[in-house]
Amino acid sequence: MKKYYIETYGCQMNVAESNAMETMLKGRGWVEASSPEDADLAIINTCSVRKSAENRIWGRLGAYTYIKAQKAKENESLTLVLAGCMAERLHDSVKNDAPQIDFVIGNNDKLKLLDIIGNKESTPQESEKYIFTKAYHKDGEFSSYVPIMNGCNNFCSYCIVPYVRGREVSRPVDEILEEVRRLDEEGVREITLLGQNVNSYCYEGCHFPQLLEMVCRQCRNIQWIRFESPHPKDFSEELIEVIAREPKVAKHLHVPMQSGNTRILGLMNRRYTREKYLDLIDKIKQRVPNVTFALDIMVGFPGETEEEFMDTMSAVEAVGCIEAYMYYWNPREGTRACSMEGQLSDKEKQQRLQRLIGWQLANAAKIKATRAHGVQKILVTQVSRDDKSKMLGRNEHGEMVAFSTLEGSSVKPGDMVYVDFKLLNGNTYLGEQVTETSV
């Protein structure tokens, strides 16, 4: 019985693609190993979005040198596959520095995994086109990713994605709707439509707002539909209207900002200004009153002045987000930003990031404190580790709540229940389950 082990790093698309590889392996009779030491095949599905992500992979490759040597002493073998964006960026040259790798497989060839290792093609010819598969769901989970497009045409000056994922390609509408129907029949509770630039989706004249509306029509058991990651320049008024009128669309939106200064946004090639971004946020707030936001925020971009950094701080405050992914600019070989003038020191970038983090956490805490009331629908995720008498769950805004259940109820992960929010404790709400009739 052959065993596999998969390590996944980076974005949600990588998670979805790892799920697809796992489904493929199980379909061929493979079983999951509890550790790489117990596996016949190990796959590292990599990320290249920042240098720190690749550094983690190099550390893991060092560990695999030891694991393979130990297995060899026991007359056992381990096939090691490097897949994903780092494999795409470095191609087969990575094997010069890491000879413990047996196969290097780019993003377009992940689903050819078994054919490649079966034919012993240590340097497989890469496919020119990205191929979608039928299913990206991990068995037993009540949330699922649904990739709808791959690649990016934007070429933001700091971003390596277009170079490792290629140009945009959209998945056929019928394939997406069929997967959603299947997930709905299996009792999945929430899905996330995925793409590097998800709202630029276009297949044979069907654009993202129309697709999102069609997906909503497919869902009965599925309660929340999310999408990641949109680009502000493609966030149309038609899309805002779909979000406003469709109750299945979760009212928590990830709208990457990156910078709150127009000059820096221009250098980033983001193709919107500070004013246009904040105007978009205002339009969404007007049409979707209960909306909450998550942001991507980058500081320390080449040439960023103290005043321009403060513009970002003030823009974050104006948005009023409850969640933010904050980081400082990290040079990526091959992107235009690497050769720009005005490179900041790591010390200055780190200082700005710490100031931003402190600022945002304080703002988010104030906003979340005002939301500690009322009855909300909750997706139950697990039993609380701190208090076994309570369950944990998330609302449609992604906020965590620990709650006591109704006497005699048998609440389990994957259930949808109603909870009366009482107060905020740190970053987690506390509440009590109520009956649906009391809503």
* Sheet with the most strands: spatial strand order: 2-1-3-4-5
Gyration radius, to the nearest Å? Answer: 23 Å
- Based on secondary structure, the structural category is alpha/beta
Q: Low-confidence runs (pLDDT<50, min 5 residues)?
A: none
CATH architecture of the largest domain: Alpha-Beta Horseshoe
Q: What is the average of the pLDDT values? A: 94
Separate helix tally: 13
CATH superfamily of the largest domain: tm_1862 like domain
Helix content: 25-40%
The total strand number stands at: 20
- Distance from first to last alpha carbon: 52 Å
Q: Remind me, CATH topology of the largest domain?
A: pyruvate-formate lyase- activating enzyme
CATH class of the largest domain: Alpha Beta
- Major β-sheet annotation: 5 strands, parallel
The geometry reads as globular
Strand content: 15-25%
Number of domains: 3
